[in-house]
Fold:
Amino acid sequence: MFWDQEIETLPRPELEQLQLKRLQKTVRRVASQSDYYRQKFADTGVKPSAIKTLADLRRLPFTTSADLRTNYPYGLLVKGKESPIRLHTSSGTTGKPKALFFSRNDIDQSAENIARCLVMAGLGPQDVVQNMMTYGMFTGALVMHYGAEKVGSLVIPAGPGNSEKQLLLMQDFRTTAIHVTPSYALYFADFLEKKGIDPRKDLVLRLAFIGAEPYTEETRRKIEDALGVQVFNCYGLSEMNGPGVAFECAAKAGMHLWEDNFLLEIIDPQTGEPLPDGQTGELVLTTLCREAMPILRYRTRDITAIIPEPCPCGRTHRRLQRITGRSDDMLIIRGANVYPQQIERVLMSIPGLGRNYLIVLEGLDEMTVKVEVSDANFDGQVEHLVRLQNQTMEKLRAEIMVRPKVELVMPGSLPASEGKAKRVIDKRVL
Ligand code: ADP
Ligand code: ZN
Structure:
């Protein structure tokens, strides 16, 4: 199933030619119409005419999230004929947010990207999409909203939270697809279990588009089992239009990144040098079609690898592996490098554990993993709990090489998350 078969299956040589043409146009535009890039090109001695092949991309300077913040609010806006018609901001975890501007064509292009993704996952006009992401300044909900409307589905702008209302909408309007974060999907699965709702019998859900934060294969399986849906991994970031930058096809083995819209590089995060396909590093993206705010070589800090093999679905746009986290997510605990995703993978693979967890770092380097036990498996017997606790500790130690404290807590007792989950609390005195 294709939304735009011609472009999605464009032979690589033609795709690369299209990329080069669009890259050259973008570079010429920012050199003449963006104060920020004009200055940056002057500082680094870049001449737009030097971009003769795609390999010349590496002559261009990187753009970082610090650049976006420093030049907030209007610094990266391009002064073109078309004035921007929409502003989004990206979650400013520290200090100022990043301002992102969209022209009319940018909005249409981002909806077009999502439409491709959704049809690839099997969505159609007969579907009812319940959009459980946060509406407002974030790109997540609105970009998906426009894309699903483009496909012709009925879109319910539910927003996150209020699980009772979500359930009511699902029952009354016979929702077939949801767009949700992995943490809220897990929480919602718990909620249904407590209400005695069996999604396979009582609801008609079949598809879930899940992204906005990293999650593991084990979490995908948990959500698929609990909600009776097919989960498709959806990747995006506000700096690149929001969700739908890359998305899984029916093979569910990596996310196709729409290379007619974005140039894709993987670099070594330490040296900034490009890495060959297949090697894990930091994803760097360049917009190829953006009008209001083109961004060159944006350092996403997201860690992934390109899957070089062609995909059985016939799409020629290369796939990304599941994002394992951000380069700045890494925790250093007693000298060992630990990614929260490693911990999640272990927790989600142990049947007696529930779906919510929290990693707390305290003191000098003490790590406590708090995890809810599963309601269904909880029989209240102390020796069972002790066994589960030891098993969890051992499995974590084998994975991360550090022995954490494990605290089993009652189902439903950890803070529930509706948007992006906060999984790590770092109170260390380092
Ligand atoms: P949005 O508002 O669209 O969620 P943000 O810019 O706030 O965008 O967040 C984007 C970041 O979220 C990405 O850089 C990445 O770290 C994370 N993210 C988004 N989708 C996924 C995904 N499918 N898997 C892992 N991480 C993701
Ligand atoms: Zn595919």
